[in-house]
UniProtKB/TrEMBL annotation:
InterPro entries: Dabb, Dimeric_a/b-barrel. PANTHER family: BLL2683 PROTEIN, STRESS-RESPONSE A_B BARREL DOMAIN-CONTAINING PROTEIN. This is Dabb family protein. Signal peptide: none annotated. It comes from the Bacteria. Pfam families: Dabb. Residues 2-98 form the Stress-response A/B barrel domain.
């Protein structure tokens, strides 16, 4: 199994009042990719990190094999979700695959 962990911060211009809705949309659409993307076994969206965290949200996913990370990254369903619900509102992306 391969783990793919991504963390983001909200862009400074995102209003605090909008953050709960945006987090809910991100969670719903990212978690909905399970079953759509070959090799994607599990996906969990972290929308309420501890105060000691350096980022506002995280994606913790499990894929069958290392090569599936690239499949996931380029899959049209993932690209649509990322371009619609994540990238417009986030910055300072950090990623760890293992």
């Amino acid at each position: 199994m391969t783990h793919h962990i991504v963390m983001w911060k909200f862009k400074p211009e995102v209003a605090d009042a909008d953050k709960p809705r945006l987090l809910a949309d991100m969670a719903k659409h990212l978690e909905g990719l399970v079953g759509q993307v070959p090799g994607l076994v599990e996906l969990h969206f972290v929308s309420a990190p501890l105060a000691s965290s350096t980022h506002d949200m995280a994606l913790v996913s499990v894929l069958e094999k290392p090569e599936d990370v690239a499949v996931y990254s380029h899959h049209p369903a993932h690209v649509k979700v990322a371009d619609t619900y994540v990238r417009p509102y986030t910055c300072d992306r950090a990623c760890l695959d293992y």
